[in-house]
Amino acid sequence: MPLLDVRLVAPGAARSSASVLVLPVRPAAETEAPDAEQPATEQPATEQPATEQPAASLAGAAEPAPDALSAAATAYLADVKHSGKAGELRTLPRPGEKPATVHMVGIGDADEAALRKVGAAVVRACSDTPTPRLVAPADAGADAIRGLVEGALLGAYRFTLASKAEPPKLRRLTVVVEDPDRYADALAKATAVAQATHLARDLANMPSAAKDPAWFAAQALKATGKLGVKAVVREPARLAEEGFNGILAVGGGSARGPRLVELKWAPRGAKTHVVLVGKGITFDTGGISIKPMQGMQLMKKDMSGGAAVIGAVLAAALLKLPVKVTALVPMAENMPSGSAYRPGDVVRHYGGRTSEIRNTDAEGRVVLADALAYADKRLAPDVLVDLATLTGAQSVALGKRTAALYADDDALAQALADAAEAAGERVWRMPLPDEYAEKLDSDIADVNNAPDGGAGSVVAALYLREFAGGSRGKWAHVDMSGPSWSDSASDELTKGATGWGVRTLVRWLDSLVP
Ligand code: BES
Ligand code: MN
Ligand code: ZN
C-alpha cells in the first residue's frame, strides 16, 4: 500500500474544501495550588472547596479558527474535560455547518514525541474521512513537524491479503503550518523513514508460504535497486564455495534454499562505513529441536531484524545520506526434515570458527555468526551493528516495547540509545559479563550455540561477540524479539509487524553525518 499523502500547506490554502477539521488543544497551564506547601492533614478534605479542574484550551494554531467556532470549541473542551494530553482526541459534531466535524486533539508539550502521537491519533480518528485538514500548533519546530508527519504516516499503515479489502477512505491529510518551506527537510525525513518502516512491516507481515529466502532477497533488491544501491545475492552453491556453512546448516532442512543478501549504499565522499547485519529467518519452526505450537505461531516475523536493516539502507538511499552503509542479511528457513541440521552437529562458520549445535532452535546466532565473521574479515567496517529477533528471553526481561542493546563500547551504546530515544523506539543496555562467556565452552568446537543456565539474551549476545573478531570493539547487537511485533494498535504502531529498528538506525546513521 502506498504511503498516505501528507501535504503541508500555508494558512488559508484550500480552506473551504475540508469537511473535517482538526484543531490542536493544549493542556491547562500547570497552576500551583495555593495550599500546596501545607501538609494535607491540616485541612480535612471536607473543608476544601470543590476546585474546578482547569480546562484545556485551544492551542495557538498556525491558522486561527473563526471566532464562533473557537467559542464553541472552547466551551466543548470544558464540557468534555479534555486533558490536552498528547493524542487525546474528542469530537465536536456541528450538524449543518462547515466544517461539519471538528476533532480536538491534545498536543501535550508539543515536542516531537508528543506530535508523533498526535499524527497517529488523527489518522486513526479520520480513517473514514477522505481529506481531513489538521492545523498544526503555532511555532512548531521542524522536529515537531517531523514527529507529526511520521506519526500520521506510520499510524495509517495497513497490511491485508483479504480479497474483500477496500482501499483506504483516508486519501490525503492536509497539515496547515505557518511556512511549509521551513519543513521541507522534516517532511523528507519523515517520509523516507515511514516508507522504509512500511517496507519492513510488509516484509515481516507477509506469510512464510510466500516469504521464502529467494522471495525475501528479491524484495530487498526490488525496493532498493533503482536508488543506486548495489546488491549481491549469494545462492547455496556460492555460499558453499565461500564457506558460509552456518547459513547452509540452518537452511538445510528447507526445500527452499538459503540466501545471503549484501546491499551497499556507497555515496561518493563517505567517510564512515557502517555494516548492518539483520537476522533473516523466514520461518523458525525450531528445526529438529522443534517448537511447540504456541511458540511457533508468530515465527514468520523471525526476519524482522533483516527487514529493518534493509529498510535502513532504503532510507539512507532515499535521503542520500553521505554514509557508506552495507547491509548483510542471511536468509534461511529453519525446518525439520531429512536434510535438516541436528543437535550434536559441528558447523564450521565463515572464517573457520566452529559451533557445536546443542539446539537447532538457536539458529539465528548460527546464521549471524557467518555474516559477522564475513563483515569483520572482508568489509573493514568502522561500526558493525546487528539486529535480530534472537531470543524469547529478551521479551521476558524487557517486554514488548524495549529492545536489548549490547556493546562493549560505551560511546557506541550511548549513540544508539540516544537515536532510539529520539526516534520513539526504546532500548535498554544489557551487560556482556566476561565470566558468563565460559558457558559457551564446548568439548569439541570453539563454542556451543545454546548454553543453559539462564540469561538467554545475554549469552546469545556473548556468542555473537565471538564472531565479531577484530571488530569486537566496534560492534553492537540489538535483540528486538519483543518490539518487532505489536498485539494491538497503539500510537504510531499498528497491529502486527512494527518495523522496529528502522527509525533508530536512520536516526543514528544521520547522526554520523559530520
Ligand atoms: N526466533 C527465536 C526467538 C524468538 C522467540 C523471537 C519469540 C521472538 C519471539 C529464536 O530463534 C529462538 O528460538 N531462540 C531460542 C534460543 C534457545 C533455544 C537457546 C529461545 O529463545 O528459546
Ligand atoms: Mn529459533
Ligand atoms: Zn529464530
Strand tally is 21
The unique ligands bound to this protein are: ligand BES, manganese (II) ion, zinc ion
Query: What's the mean pLDDT score?
Result: 95
Distance between the termini: 35 Å
Strand content: 15-25%
Unreliable spans = none
Largest sheet: 9 strands, mixed
Give the CA-based shape.
elongated
| Whole-angstrom Rg | 26 Å
Name its key features.
single chain; binds zinc ion; binds manganese (II) ion; 14 helices; binds ligand BES; 9-stranded mixed beta sheet; 7-stranded mixed beta sheet; 514 residues; alpha/beta
Overall description:
The structure is a single chain. The chain is of the alpha/beta class and 514 residues long. Helices cover 32% and strands 19% of the residues. It is built from 14 helices and 21 strands. The strands form 4 sheets. Strands 8, 9, 10, 11, 12, 15, 16, 17 and 19 form a 9-stranded mixed beta sheet that branches. Strands 1, 2, 3, 4, 5, 6 and 7 form a 7-stranded mixed beta sheet that branches. Strands 13-14-18 form a 3-stranded mixed beta sheet. Helix 12 links the parallel strand 16 and strand 17. Helix 10 (364-378) runs parallel beside helix 13 (456-465). The chain is elongated. The two termini are 35 Å apart. The model has no long low-confidence stretch (mean pLDDT 95). The structure holds ligand BES, manganese (II) ion and zinc ion. Ligand BES binds at residues 284, 302, 359, 361-364, 389-393, 450, 456, 481.
